[in-house]
Amino acid sequence: xxxAPRGLRLSTTTNKVTSSKPKPINKRSNTTxxxxxxxxxxxxxxxxxxxEGGNNRGPQVVKYQKATWLKPDAWPWCAAFVCWCIMxxxxxxxxxxNFERPETASAFEFxxxxxxxxxxILSDICQAKAGDICIFDFxxxxxxxxxxxxxxxxxxxxxTNGLGTRDSIxxxxxxxxxxxxxxxxCFARFEKV
Length: 193
Prior knowledge:
- The protein is an alpha+beta fold.
- The chain has a 6-stranded antiparallel sheet. The chain has a two-stranded antiparallel sheet with strand order 1-2.
- The chain has 4 helices and 8 strands; from the N terminus they run ββααααββββββ.
- The chain has a single domain, classed as endopeptidase fold (from Nostoc punctiforme), CATH 3.90.1720.10.
C-alpha cells in the first residue's frame, strides 16, 4: 500500500498525490474580465485616418459619428471616435461581459456613462492602464494604449492633430498622442466597482 506524505493524499483512481486540503473558494471568481488589449488594437488600427473635404468632415468622420445618437455633421468627433472603438470591440468580442455601449457625442458625458455601467472612475492622480478611457479637462477624450510609466499618458485620440492641440478647427484625424497627466480630468476603467 502506498502512503502520501503528511498534508497530501493519494488518489485511489489515478494513483497521483494531491493536496488533502480543499481548494479555497475564490470569492472574487465572478469578477468581470474585459479584453482591453482588443480595444487598444482597434484604436491603434485607426491611427492615420484623416478628415476629408473640410473641417470635421469625410467618410471616416461620418463612420465614427454614426456610433453616437447625434446625426453626422460637421461637429467635433473625439467622443464619437471612442464610441465607435467600443462598438467595434463589443462586436469582435461577443463573449465578454455585456454592458450598454456609449452613444454620446460629449467627452464629459463618458464619466456619467461609465458610472451607470458600474465601471471604475479614477482620479487624475491614478496610474493609467492600457484600455482606460482618458477624459481630459479641456472637453476631449481618448483611449489609453499603454500602461503609464511616468508623468505622460500614451493615447489614441480622434479629432486631434500632430501638434498636441485639439479643437474643432485644428483637429484633423486620429493620432497617437503623448500628453502630460496634468491635462487629465479622470479615467474610466473597464473594471466593475
